Amino acid sequence: MTQRSLPLAGIRVLDLTRVLAGPWCTQNLADLGADVIKIEKPGSGDDTRSWGPPYLQDAEGNDTRDAAYYLCANRNKRSVAVDLATPEGARVLRELAAVSDVLVENFKVGGLAKYGLDYESLKAINPRLIYCSITGFGQSGPYASRPGYDFMIQGLGGLMSITGERDGMPGAGPQKAGVAVVDIVTGMYASVGILAALQERHQSGLGQRLDIALLDSVVAMLANQNMNFLTTGKAPGRSGNAHQNIVPYQVFAASDGHLIVAVGNDTQFRAYCVAMDAMHLSSDPRFQTNQSRTINRDVLVPQLAEIMAARPRDYWLERLEAVGVPCGPINTIEQVFADPHVQARGLRLDLPHAAAGTAPSVASPLRFSDTPVQYRAAPPVLGQHTDEVLQEVLGWGPEDVAGLTAGDAGGT
């Protein structure tokens, strides 16, 4: 049987992105087999290379030049150090764009036009090019020219209005998520869009431009909370660790810690009452359906909390798992990677790294039965593949490469 190729084998991606949303997108494509060429400014590279500490350490315990932040989103790529702000550097990128399938960039709106690297200019060179622009606010609208960062768009886009403890409780107030979720989700939307554009190109033979915005993405990801507002005209507020539409679906304090109980239907609620030896609650008309429990949550939840507080966390986890009620601990990240199921799924990786020997990474959640993700290398050091790419992809000779890296395009 002929061995099957990776899903995106043969696809070349020119990556002009930095920080997180764009690199997250292109790492997805790289994991799926695309040849991702990461273009970086000579001398400094991606902004996140210096976003530390912590930094990746070598075998002797010395810091390398790459922060842990950078490592999270640049696996399986090749780094080319070229300054696109110079005439020679811009020419190199136009040559690479001419032989690429996809270009992903996250510059300010119109920022690449002066270098001849905007969509219209590159479309004339390569009509099959799929050109994905990732910005804070998109290519149109009154905010288009504004810079956009995850934190401020979590606030502007409504996510922080529904995240955090509810008003009147200790610690109440809006709260950002513990990871840059808007960047991550935007990167995922960009990945999906690129894959769809590649599929459409099979029919038309033509590329197109994708306009992906952080604000659009965060508004879209509010999902049921959007619908709570759009169907009622009333904006939902913060609920802390409780669910707006399902009860009980929240954190409870046990006698020695906390756990999550996620009752998703009425059958599970009855099982929950069995585990708590509290069948009087499941027979109470006020609590028999999710609708009635949601309406009467202020009556029900204090009774549940009192029962849960009387026993240790692990007692409840064992009891609830035995009757099929979804539940779980609140782990630290250290505890996550020590969890036997996480270990069995192979989520921790160690990949070869040019400066440190190896670098830790986290496996892609994409699991294919016949064309699994391949982890070829850790995120590259700055300019690691400049000579290799220019010779292999553009057919330059060693003298041409030497002239570039010594000249106004900037080098490694």
Automatic annotation (TrEMBL):
Keywords assigned by UniProt, alphabetized: Transferase
Pfam families in alphabetical order: CoA_transf_3
UniProt-listed InterPro entries: CoA-transferase_III_domain, CoA-Trfase_fam_III, CoA-Trfase_III_dom3_sf, CoA-Trfase_III_dom_1_sf
Gene3D superfamilies: Crotonobetainyl-coa:carnitine coa-transferase, domain 1, formyl-coa transferase, domain 3
Residues making up the signal peptide according to the UniProt record: none
The organism's place on the tree of life at top rank: Bacteria
Keyword Transferase listed: yes
GO molecular function: CoA-transferase activity
SUPFAM superfamilies: CoA-transferase family III (CaiB/BaiF)
Protein's name in the database: Crotonobetainyl-CoA:carnitine CoA-transferase CaiB-like acyl-CoA transferase
Gene source species: Pigmentiphaga litoralis
